[in-house]
Amino acid sequence: MGVGSWVGGEAGGSLRADTVVVWWQYAGSDPRAQARELLRAAAADAVGADPADVRVGRAASGAPELSGAARGLLVGLSHTRGLVTVAVAGPRTRAQGVGVDAEAVRPLDAIALAERWFTADEAAWVRSLPPTLRSTGLLDLWTRKEAVGKAFGTGLRAGGLRRPVGVPPPGAPPASPRPLTPLPGAHRLMGTVLSGPRGYVLACAIRGAGTPSPPVQVAERIVVRGTGPLLQAWASSCR
What we know:
single chain; 239 residues; alpha+beta; six-stranded mixed β-sheet; four-stranded antiparallel β-sheet; 22% helix; globular
């Protein structure tokens, strides 16, 4: 895995063809509309177009679908309390689907939820955490499962919460940023937790990138209203 950081300049065709870029933005009073606006801006930046020339619709599955200047670009979208996130996949990722999910960290009945919905190994990992980290641990798994479901275009339907995503490696705190890695028992499916804003867990999944996969970067972009399109980005890559 390689890790780097950079400060962005002007938007316009900046998405590398082998990259999945995740943008996040603090949400206002209408997160659904804001998520669509952010998706339009991210897609326009990826192809070097005017956001006005990008149209956001919905596929039959309910997943976001682009037309206009960004037709055919694979994207994912999520909004939760206080935060909106979008993911855009470059064409050389060979991705067939991309998903992103975010959740605010909050007190949860983590052990009960994990034992009800997750695999035995995942529930055991949540139980093994110190009490103060169990809610975060639950959300580490939950967001990755949500992201995988979105990459498939099904969400959590048909047992998505029971789809194994694997526990973090030994010594890794829950919700800590990790490399993009293949998911257990899955064909051509990878997922990761990203370095998101404080108080949130942010995850991304890519379906169809191949095994072994080409180098694929998952980058995080921090977008703040009124300060320009891009402040900074962090990237990780794997084969």
